[in-house]
Amino acid sequence: MLGMFFWAFVIGGLICVIGQLMMDVGKLTPGHTLSAMVVAGAVLAGFDLYEPLIDFAGAGATIPIMSFGNSLVAGAMQEAEKHGIVGVLTGMFEVTSAGISAAIVFGFIGAAVFKPKG
User: Fold this and answer.
1) What parts of the sequence cross the membrane (predicted)?
2) What's this model's pTM, rounded to 2 decimal places?
């Protein structure tokens, strides 16, 4: 049990360190770093390397933004098998829509409940 927590912490931390190095050393903006991490997750998923990482690291691999790229590719591939080329486009949105919808709803609730400073 402790090993699972340890590896989740280490792998999640390494992903965050890579992102921070991209901004500090590579002088990338946060937007560029975010996009690069999503693309990296999608590329790893395309080569079937992200799922083994999730199996090994658990939340350490599913929480960082790279997991969003993995979700996009996994949804596209799943729906492409069922519906062909149209499934590639619809699958990305179908799989990720719950997370995006939750972010919008909770963001709205947060904006409605709390008062901004300034």
Assistant:
1) 6-26, 33-50, 88-114
2) 0.76
